[in-house]
Amino acid sequence: MTGGIAAYKAALLLRLMTEEGHEVHVVPTEAALNFVGKPTWEALSGQPVYHDTFEAVEEVNHVLQGRQADLVVIAPATANSLAKAAAGLASDLIGNILLTATVPVVMAPAMHTEMWENAATRANVATLRARGVHIVEPAVGRLTGVDTGKGRFPEPEDIWAQTKTIAAATQVGQTLAGKHVVVSAGGTREALDPVRYLGNRSSGKQGVALAQAAAAQGAHVTLIAGAMDVAAPEHKNIAVVNIESTHDLLEAVLDHAQHKDALIMAAAVADFRPASTTNEKIKKQDDDSAPTIVLEQTEDVLRSTVEQRDAGQDLPRVIVGFAAETGDAHTSPLEYGRAKLQRKGCEILVVNEVGVGKVFGQDENDVTMVFADGSEDVTIQGTKQLVAEAIIERLAGALS
């Protein structure tokens, strides 16, 4: 809530929310606390109240609040807060929440009639609506003092009724609502000694983007994370399971994918591991000789999972694999990918050409989706987030 006299009526809105069982976190501006103090909001919500960007910094609170929310309601929304939101300013905690939240945003303005009808305010409201922000129209009636006109804070019951309608419509539009998706991300590492390992260049960016895209469509997500250059997403619907080796990955997939709807194997699996390891660091020799390292193949996580499903295990009926390929003089990466689809037995395979400066660690991706049912290939180019959204869209279609 922002700093308007209608803040006292927002306490009634908060009560309506909590009485229906919702967990509500109140974020007031400093100006809002001049009207209703922090103890009131903490008592009514049963949650700690933060209003400063530099509070709870160890939790990265200015980002965490927006990521964990299912819905953001700003009530009352002053003319100043509408202007700051339209400009994308992050000068306070609310501004940071609006920039990080990917969920519906509802704003209930309250101000004097002249301020509501000012051309600047009207332009800001139009900008926010064009971005998908839901604006609850102010009521007409008694304002502060003796003024009367449009700009009155709507009754809390009206705001809550409209908010629930907006939330319900958004939920209906989520293509994976009620589904549970397992996503693997990052690279696996195969130990040689306590210091060294055999690994790959995977950053985990594409897998994290897939987890976020699935959660945005209403899915509960289990993210099985190997070595990643990016942090695992902080989202109430994303649970993170950390692994290191390919064997760890296989065990985690067979465990956490049980009774789930879909599996996306985006992790870059190390195909080989040292045939033997040592508990002590391998030392350099004075004669400059190097040890001979014998490799063996690791488990085929994707094929093993498909085989166990086909043998009767309750594993996802839609499994999406990834094929990071390089071509040669005779065969293209896509041709290698088609052959891999046949060997692995999954429903969808995402093929991309990899190499130094290609895909691994980059923000862009260029993939082709091939399908076991013979559907036409789909090529996607763009940011890894855009690629993730396109994959999730096809996944939702396969599940439905």
Automatic annotation (TrEMBL):
One of its GO terms (molecular function) is ligase activity. Pfam families: DFP, Flavoprotein. The keyword Nucleotidyltransferase does not apply. Binds 1 FMN per subunit. Residues 1-162 form the Flavoprotein domain. CTP binds at residues 271, 281, 322, 340, 344. It catalyses: (R)-4'-phosphopantothenate + L-cysteine + CTP = N-[(R)-4-phosphopantothenoyl]-L-cysteine + CMP + diphosphate + H(+); N-[(R)-4-phosphopantothenoyl]-L-cysteine + H(+) = (R)-4'-phosphopantetheine + CO2. Residues 176-396 form the DNA/pantothenate metabolism flavoprotein C-terminal domain. Pathway: Cofactor biosynthesis; coenzyme A biosynthesis; CoA from (R)-pantothenate: step 2/5; Cofactor biosynthesis; coenzyme A biosynthesis; CoA from (R)-pantothenate: step 3/5. Residues 181-400 are annotated as: Phosphopantothenate--cysteine ligase. Gene3D superfamilies: CoaB-like (3.40.50.10300), Flavin prenyltransferase-like (3.40.50.1950). InterPro entries: CoaB-like_sf (IPR035929), CoaBC (IPR005252), DNA/pantothenate-metab_flavo_C (IPR007085), Flavin_trans-like (IPR036551), Flavoprotein (IPR003382). This is Coenzyme A biosynthesis bifunctional protein CoaBC. It comes from Yaniella flava. The gene is coaBC.
